[in-house]
Amino acid sequence: MLVEKITSRQNPLVKRFRRVRAGGERPHVFLEGTRLIEDAVATGARFDCVVFTAELAASERGAAVLDLLRGVQCRGALVSGQVMEAIADTRSPQGIAAIVSRPFFELDDLFSRKVDLLVIADELQDPGNLGAIIRSAEAAGASGLITIRHTVDAFSDKTIRASMGSALRLPLVTDAKREDVLARCREHNIKVVASSASPTRPAGLIRDAAAEPIIRIYTEADLTVPIALVLGREATGVSTAASGEADELIHIPMADGVESLNVAAAAAILLYEAARQRAFSFKTEDNRD
After folding, report:
1. Torsion angle of alpha carbons 48, 20, 38, 34, nearest 10°?
2. Which CATH number is 36's domain given?
3. 118 and 195 fall within a common domain
């Protein structure tokens, strides 16, 4: 990593960092903070450039991160605290940020491998929710996650931070057409299971009576077979279009007076129920690195 020094907020590199952070360069992703930079190095991400402060370099963990980056071929810049504040998206920057190449998977890439547990984000709007779902999906052993068009960007800085780096590791297909995803699931004999806040069929769901999806409590559904779990928009839930194509609807019972769960909380419950049924082998204190 070749290092230069930048002291002006008007430097073209500073402007580029802000542009990438705002989503202005789709092939690239903005990362901020030591944890995400460490994760990116560990996953073999392709770094474009890194900026850091003298305070970061003087700290033990910061020095260790910079040591990891010494063998990385990218542009590096030592910046002042004021410049870092102009680059960062957090109120109290840790003193390091990077631009890396965006991980890219197409549907063919995902479905060419063995798919046991797939998550489909159907027009979610909150980056924090999507990031938390990506994190839970990786933790529960999911094969990958697909976002349907009009879903928040899975690689926005807020989503990546909420995923705690899982967005850099879990195979993600973004901005896919709903009909294409559902068609692939049918082709590969993957059961489509849609979450439902209610134990009754969604209003407006019109299908042949013999073909209407069964609605089950989530613990009574068979989640051991290859499944695609569809999670819907925060305010309205899974779209009627997706529910109408689902093989099964599942819901989480709630106490009287509770309308619904947060979608990220619901996703974690459903994903871990699938993992439990599959006897997924989780990392424990005894086998943790």
Report:
1. 130
2. 3.30.1330.30
3. yes
Each residue's pLDDT tens digit, 23-57 = 999 999 999 999 999 999 999 999 999 999 999 99
Looking at the domain assignment, is residue 283 inside a domain? no
Domain annotation covers residue 288: no
Task: Write the pLDDT tens digit of every residue in 129-165.
Answer: 999 999 999 999 999 999 999 999 999 999 999 999 9
| Adjacent-strand bridge partners of 172 | 145
Number of domains in the chain: 2
> 35: domain range?
2-101
Contacts 24+ apart (CB under 8 A), 134-138: 134/159, 134/162, 134/163, 134/166, 134/167, 134/170, 134/172, 135/162, 135/163, 135/164, 135/166, 136/264, 136/267, 136/268, 136/271, 136/272, 137/166, 137/170, 137/267, 137/271, 138/163, 138/166, 138/169, 138/170
Cβ-based burial of 120 (10 A; exposed 0-12, middle 13-18, buried ≥19): buried
The reported pTM is 0.88
pLDDT (tens digit per residue) in 196-222: 876 555 544 445 444 566 889 999 999
Do the bridges between strand 117-122 and strand 227-232 make them parallel or antiparallel, or are there none, so unpaired?
Answer: parallel
